[in-house]
Amino acid sequence: MEEREISQAVIRRLPRYYRYLGELLEHGVERISSNDLSKRMKVTASQIRQDLNNFGGFGQQGYGYNVKYLYTEIGKILGLNENHNIIIIGAGNLGQALANYSAFESRGFILKGIFDVNPRLTGVTIRGIEIRMMEDLKDFVRENDIEIGVLTIPKTKAVEVANLLVDNGVKAIWNFAHTDLNLPDNIIVENVHLSESLMRLSYNITRYNEEHKND
Predict the structure, then answer these.
(1) Is 192 found in the same domain as 102?
(2) Residues forming the annotated binding site for NAD(+)?
(3) Which residues are known binding-site members?
(4) pLDDT tens digits for 41-62?
(5) Oligomeric state and partners (predicted)?
(6) End-of-domain residue from the set 48, 77, 106
(7) Residue 50 lies in a domain
(8) What is the pTM of this model?
(9) What is the pLDDT of residues 107-146, one digit of tens each?
(10) Which helix or strand (DSSP H or E) is residue 173 part of?
(11) Range of the domain at 53
């Protein structure tokens, strides 16, 4: 496949395609047209074809898409056919909830370790993974080929910890801390700011209520 720059907008839609195709597979659907897929996803058929053409198309005129094949190929594009070793920094409520999310493994994300600063959590296990203290972090990252660090810690510590991870070979950060990280350009950062999502929800609820207050 010819290398080309794929827009972030297309990349953000790929997991959604993957999820819908997985649901179709669960319901025994073997093939689907871009028009039928667009109705399910609320994305235009033209947009679907344009997105998938970035990776070779996958469809046949008059036939549509083979659901299993397309699901598998998008999984490969997303790297879900490979394993990625991850660790979670912060064993509070959010960190423990993420550690308990067993579906990570089915997507190739292998949880190798959980770290915290609270000595009362030393030795506690979540799904068989022992919570370790931060002084063990540096050696653990190097010895276990950790690719992804998940930050569920206060923002005051996030930058320091992120830099420590990067200095020891971590390639990507999944950042739940309520702060932006200024890291080298070759480090991949995915920010998940839960409060910002709630604010957007609040905005839309407020607009909706204003528009319908006289209903």
Answers:
(1) yes
(2) 90-95
(3) 90-95
(4) 998 999 999 999 888 868 666 6
(5) Homodimer.
(6) 77
(7) yes
(8) 0.84
(9) 899 999 999 999 999 989 999 999 999 999 999 999 999 9
(10) strand 172-175
(11) 8-77
